Amino acid sequence: MAKYDEHFKLSLVQQYLGGAAGYKSVAKQHGVDHEMLRRWVMSFRAHGVDGLKKKFSHYSAEFKLLVLRHMWDNALGLGQTAALFNIRSPGSLIVWEREYRREGLDGLTARPRGRPKVMSVGPAKPESKPDNEKSREDLQAELDYLRMENAYLKKLQALSSQAKASAAEKAQIVQELRQQYPITGLLMAAQLSRSTFYYQLGLRHQDDKYNDLKDTIKTVFERHKGRYGYRRITAVVRQLGYVVNHKVVQRLMGVLGLKSLVRPKKYRSFKGDVGQAAPNELQRQFKAEAPNQKWVTDVTEFNVAGEKLYLSPILDLYNGEIIAFETNKRPVFDMVSSMLKTALARLQPHERPMLHSDQGWQYRMPAFQRQLRERELVQSMSRKGNCHDNAAMESFFGILKSEFFYLNRFNSVDELRAGLADYIHYYNHERIKLKLKGLSPAQYRTQAVAA
């Protein structure tokens, strides 16, 4: 460490006291540490020029104890105490305090210089001596330590029911008691290092800064009934003004115990060969450049209390929106025909989307195909036994059942039918999609039309 003479120290102290600059500015100008300059100023204020002279570095055990008692009684910091008693290094007080807690007054007695033959490990409370050998100071120090240790143990028992407390719990107790007892002694009683204590405090402050975000994440998760994973929730909270990484959202959802439900396997049914099949014109090209270019359709089945309900929707591949849908307790042709009429009524005269389906008997009916020819729509069908050719529609059914059907209990098919209408409206107008830039299908279509 660099040696500074009395005149150099005095010049820096006077420059600071002149009010022209602060500690950091003066210290940086002369190439010294600003904390060192702070100690020089405190020493000068307490002792004048004598406080800047080279200090005597050997102190008696009685003097050390006097310094420690004054520091504890007045809740002073290390720097303040060192300046008040004109001690060369504030770090010496830490050593004195540790040795006094461990060995009492004997621990403050100067030892021969050099490495000790036996190294002690970890902090410990003051050793007990026979009563006839203890001084007044020893007894007082032991009493203080026992009071502090008792307060710590009471807090620990109230806070933790586990046999071994965590570092976070220990740090919390030390933080609560540090206004009543010296922190060094508390850390000894807790068997907690100073660095670990401040690290745990930092973690507590870090958690606090996410309180608002946690509340928002929980609200979004509950609003969508557990259907959103961390990616969609990240998109929503960003729309609400938060600047946050998806990994942070994922971690906080783990802390809150929020997890999107795993999608169960979808229902599969067999469809026989009836009527005339159409070629596979779609060829798994599931991307559309504009609304009403490519439609897909299929029928799915629900079972409630021994009764069945069938759903027949049409989905626009441009934005995944459900254009039209019908439900029925039986998979009759009228259900599919009525759905198609509703969808066709939404088209402009120049719009002629391709309609893709599987080879279900409803789509091979002459009446169904005639409706398509009258509006000059191209019909496309998946290859036999290949569900991947209509993967977009199958994907919607999987989402519908995992986010709605499997999450609720229905007493009747009528209750299910009403719920399906509500969910499809939610799916079209509220449920965002990441591939749609975080917009719902209806919002994405409106944006495209406006552009």
Automatic annotation (TrEMBL):
SUPFAM superfamilies, per the entry: Homeodomain-like, Ribonuclease H-like
Organism field: Telluria mixta
Gene3D superfamilies in the cross-refs: Ribonuclease H-like superfamily/Ribonuclease H, Winged helix-like DNA-binding domain superfamily/Winged helix DNA-binding domain
Region described as Disordered: spans on this chain: 107-136
Comp. bias (Basic and acidic residues): 126-136
Signal peptide, first to last residue: none
Superkingdom of this protein's organism: Bacteria
Domain named Integrase catalytic: residues: 287-449
Record protein name field: IS3 family transposase
Pfam families tied to this protein: HTH_21 (PF13276), HTH_28 (PF13518), HTH_Tnp_1 (PF01527), rve (PF00665), rve_2 (PF13333)
InterPro entries linked to this entry: Homeodomain-like_sf, HTH-like_dom, InsJ-like_HTH, Integrase_cat-core, RNaseH-like_sf, RNaseH_sf, Transpos_IS3, Transposase_8
